Each structure stands twice: as C-alpha cells, then as structure tokens.
C-alpha cells in the first residue's frame, strides 16, 4: 500500500514538473507572422530566413510581383534574420532582424526593387481620371549628399511660367505622398518641383532655390527623388518614375 502511495505521489510530482517546464517554455516563445509584399524588375530576388531560402509557389527565386506570408516561432533572446538577396550576384539588398521584443514591428514587410533603387515601402498606383495628371513623390536618400538632418521636405510643383500646379507639404523618405491632381496642359512641356524646408520658403539645403525638372504624362506620375553629387555639389534628380513599372 505504501509503495502504491509513493508511486502515485512521484507520478504527481513529475506531472506537475513537466507542466511547469512546458509553461515556462511556452512563456519564452512568441509566434511570428510576416506578410511580405514586394516587386522587382528586372532583377531576380531570393528571400531567406536564417539563411534558408523561402519558397513561394514552389520557387526559391522570383521577379515581378513577390507576395507571401511566413510563420515561425521566436525564442526569447534569439534573433531571426529575414533578408533579401540578388539571386544572380548573391548581394544582400536588405535585412530585417526580428526578435522576441520587436515582432510587432515586422508584421508587414514591403519593398520595391528597381535598377539602382530599393524602396522599403508599399507601392500602390493612384487612380487619376482621364485627361488629368497626378503626381506623388518619395525621397529615400534625403540628406545623403546634402548632409541635412531633415526627415521630409516641402515641394511646390510649377509650370515653366511659375504657375503653381500643386503643393506637397511633406515629401518623406519612407512613404509616397498623397496624390495631387491637375488638368493636363501639354504632353511635352516639363514641370518643375521646387524643394523647401517644411513650412517655409527657404531651400532645404544651401541658399539657392532647388528645382527638379520633371517629365509629365497623363495619369499617375510616381517620382523617386534622389540626391546626387555634381562637381562636388549636391543636386536633386527626379528621373525615376515608378509608374512605368506597374
């Protein structure tokens, strides 16, 4: 009888210990789900989680529209590396270090990869009515050559004669501006974007007015502004129109 009692007591103790271990183990883990939405042209990309290629529709390299959802478990104290590579060269284009504490920051990963430019944002082509012109802007390398600490700039879009077509209060590094629309007036005449410190008429860098010459076409114009260096001086170009790839 005593042996039976001792066995039952021992079994109960082990059972409690196992449950406690499981509860502690569960408490230091979190499930992670990352929704990935990207685009690449013409480069072929590969996504890897902790060095292992991610399969999308049975493929481990992909181009054009790239969409998938990945799920995994994160242990407290560990870091999981989600990275984007050029599949041909093996070059790492971007990485996201996901850990127990920052999972909520990586519920969505958006990117747009073009020759010479990589945007970490969702790209949606705005709707523009027939016979209208729409512009949106993003400025991902703001400060790279000018050295400014600004996180956004104000943009004023003008015709050659100085007539204002639209104003953009905040052109940011990470997201496209809301679309501004006006009636088309020419298929060949350029327009100019002047760039200022937000809320002012003071150039965002230097003392001279910064003017970016832009081509325009009816429909959506999705311009990526880029600081570049010419003769040792920072300039801004707007040669990349994302809408051409959509």
Alpha-carbon distance between the termini?
Answer: 80 Å
Shape descriptor reads: elongated
Task: Return the domain count.
Answer: 2
* pLDDT < 50 runs, ≥5 residues: 1-14
CATH topology of the largest domain: Immunoglobulin-like
Structural class designation: mainly beta
Q: Per CATH, which architecture of the largest domain?
A: Sandwich
* CATH level 1 class label of the largest domain: Mainly Beta
Q: What is the mean pLDDT?
A: 89
Provide structural commentary.
There is one protein chain. This protein has one helix and 15 strands, in the order αβββββββββββββββ. The protein has one helix at 2-27; strands at 29-49, 52-53, 62-75, 79-86, 92-99, 108-114, 117-119, 132-138, 152-158, 164-172, 180-183, 191-196, 210-214, 219-230, 233-241. It has 246 residues and is mainly beta. The strands form three sheets. Strands 1, 2, 3, 4, 5, 6 and 7 form a seven-stranded mixed sheet that branches. It has a four-stranded mixed sheet with strand order 11-8-14-15, with no helix packed on it. 21% of the residues are buried.
Features:
246 residues; mainly beta; Immunoglobulin-like; 2 domains; four-stranded mixed β-sheet; 1 helix; 15 strands; 50% strand; elongated
